[in-house]
Amino acid sequence: MSDDVIVEAKDGEAAAKPKGSKKKLMIIIGAAVLVLGGGGGGAAFFLMGSDKAAAKSAEGEHGEAEAEGEAEAEAEAEGGEEKGGKDGKSAVYLDVPPLVVNLRSADGAARFLKVHFVLVPGKASSVDKLQGKLPLLIDAYQPFLRELRPEDLNGSGAVYRVKEELLVRATQTLGPDAVKDVLIQDLVQQ
Questions:
Q1: H helix or E strand, kind and range, residue 183
Q2: Could you give phi then psi for residue 125, rounded to 5 degrees?
Q3: Count of beta carbons in the 10 Å neighbourhood of residue 152
Q4: Per-residue pLDDT at 189
């Protein structure tokens, strides 16, 4: 009998261990379900918009941007001009051929800059007038572009500074309201 008691005691202990393990297992499974459920709920909250009006306005703005981008692509395919602006007025762009200039470098190494941009005519001008004065404008841009150093083109503000300087030189050369904006398409340094 003492053997039976010992055997039963061992069976009882074995039965007690799985209960403790089951509790820990249930706690771990419950915590995992909560973490996964919370992560999924958070993802659903952020990915699915709750404000329908904001979603509609965002889609509308995106649609307008796509339409403008398609119109610009069509204009580029037709020779760099686009007609039919937002307000029904004719908006036209003049595609300037890419300019390649050598940069001034301190070490004497050959460095080049390729700039491709589009001019937006102002109130006092048209594409035909700008096309006729394009050699004057390119002549005004050449000294500025050749004086640039590779260090001048570093950073995110470099494109903005070049764009503003091109606009200032266009205004000086062609007069006020001749060029509304300069849109830089490519700015490659080699």
A1: strand 179-189
A2: -145, 170
A3: 15
A4: 87
